[in-house]
């Protein structure tokens, strides 16, 4: 799946509420979406700004069959870090933070 498809699928998941969050430590710092500090529409707007060079992917460290995506994008002077994977029909967020 190319970046444009990944981006479109993630924005669709955010807009339709098909999102979940991976359990992790430091969630109050590492996943601002999970704690309600940012809302799905804000994250979708950040993702919409991203270009192919802002995206990378690698196998999940727990299950190498799952591809984890990362986007690093700047907005209003802040560098956002967004990390997730797809587990149909949802996007599972690992990190959403500045």
**DSSP strand tally:** 5
> How many domains would you count in the coordinates?
1
Number of helical regions: 3
CATH-defined fold name: YaeB-like fold
- Overall geometry: globular
By CATH, the architecture is named 2-Layer Sandwich
Q: How many strands, which pairing sense, and closed or not: the largest β-sheet? A: 5 strands, mixed
Structure description:
With 98 residues, the chain is α+β, with helices and mostly antiparallel strands. It has a single domain, classed as YaeB-like fold, CATH 3.30.2310. Helix content is 29%, strand content 36%. The chain has helices at residues 3-16, 27-30, 40-49; strands spanning 19-21, 55-59, 67-75, 78-87, 90-97. Strands 1-5-4-3-2 form a five-stranded mixed sheet. It is globular and about 35 Å long. The N and C termini lie far apart (27 Å).
Task: Jot down its keywords.
98 residues, alpha+beta, YaeB-like fold, five-stranded mixed sheet, 3 helices, 29% helix, 36% strand, globular
In short:
By secondary structure, the protein is of the alpha+beta class. It is 29% helix and 36% strand. It has helices at 3-16, 27-30, 40-49, and strands at 19-21, 55-59, 67-75, 78-87, 90-97.
List the topology elements.
Layout: H1 3-16, E1 19-21, H2 27-30, H3 40-49, E2 55-59, E3 67-75, E4 78-87, E5 90-97
């Amino acid at each position: 799946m190319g970046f444009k498809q990944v981006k479109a699928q993630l924005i669709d998941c955010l807009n339709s509420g098909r999102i979940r969050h991976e359990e992790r430590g430091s969630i109050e710092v590492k996943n601002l979406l999970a704690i309600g500090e940012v809302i799905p529409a804000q994250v979708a707007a950040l993702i919409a700004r991203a270009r192919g060079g802002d995206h990378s992917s690698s196998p999940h460290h727990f299950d190498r069959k799952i591809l984890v995506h990362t986007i690093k994008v700047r907005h209003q002077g802040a560098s956002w870090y967004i990390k997730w994977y797809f587990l149909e029909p949802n996007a599972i967020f690992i990190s959403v933070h500045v």
